[in-house]
Amino acid sequence: MFLQRQREPGRPGYLGGVDKTLTDKEERARLRVVKEENRRIKYDSASTSSASYESLQKYSSSNSSENMDSEDFPTLIESSEPGTTTVDALGCNIDEFPISKSSIQRIRTEKRKEGAENIKIDFQNEVPDVVTLHWDGKLLPALSARKSKEERLPMVISYRLKEQHIAVPRLDNSTGKEQAQAVWKAILDWNLEDKVQILCCDTTASNTGRFSGACAFLEQKFDREMLFFACRHHVYELVLKSRIRSEN
Where is the composition biased (Low complexity) (predicted)? Predict the structure, then answer.
């Protein structure tokens, strides 16, 4: 009967599709279980590393023979390679204090954030009332493996004979509105909305457009008239281009 049904039009006795659908469903369920197990293992590993780091901090602070303050431990970890060098230098049992790369990376991230905040504080203490804001979009290699290039917008604050780099945000596009939003966000982050009086950029339409240029949008956000400085390199390029065209 089964063979006869297979020979009928439409092959109602064919079970290959049903078996494949069931197999795919079981495979998806298995992959979900494996993914959840890997996530649990990763979480347990991070928790163990954090607990080991806290224990090592307590040990280093109580070990008077080493004469080392507990605050020096993150610095020591940051300057060392992942492994047992740090634990061995503190005179601890290596088997009791496993140190993972994720713990070291977390400490490095915290210290870099602290360093960035210190730079901002020092900058605020010496910045004058009038500064110049520079920006220029660049197409740079992407940090993500999905893209080869991405649009970045470096920004610099200059005053007297000093310069301070404040941000390099990634842009979805290079329109004047997108650039103005990125610049304004950096200005607010560095508390410079009352100090920026001069805008310096190239003379492309995305910057100098009367209605949709970045300068026009920024002047609206600052809610005051700004002094515009066209980048000298780009101005000289325009002069040179006009000269070459006139000779041809």
Answer: 52-67
Q: Is the pTM of this model over 0.90?
A: no
Provide the 10 A C-beta neighbour count for residue 116.
10
For 44-54, how does the pLDDT look when each residue is reduced to its tens digit (9 = 90+)? 766 665 555 55
Q: What confidence category does residue 174 fall into, taking pLDDT thresholds of 50, 70 and 90? A: confident
Sorted by sequence, the CB contacts under 8 Å of residue 187 that are 6+ apart come out as: 133, 193, 196
Euclidean distance between CA atoms 161 and 141, whole angstroms? 31
pLDDT score at 148: 81
Question: Hey, where are the domains in the chain?
Answer: 81-126, 129-246
Q: Check pLDDT > 80 for residue 203.
A: yes
* Domain 129-246 of CATH type 3.30.420: yes
What DSSP line would sit under 204-241, residue for residue?
A: -HHHH-TTTSHHHHHHHHHTS--EEEE-HHHHHHHHHH
What type of residue is 137?
G
Three-state DSSP state, 174: coil
Tokens of 21: 């659908």
**CA 194 to CA 164: how far, in whole Å?**
17
Tokens 């070459």 sit on residue: 244
Distance of CA 230 to the CA centre of its chain: 30
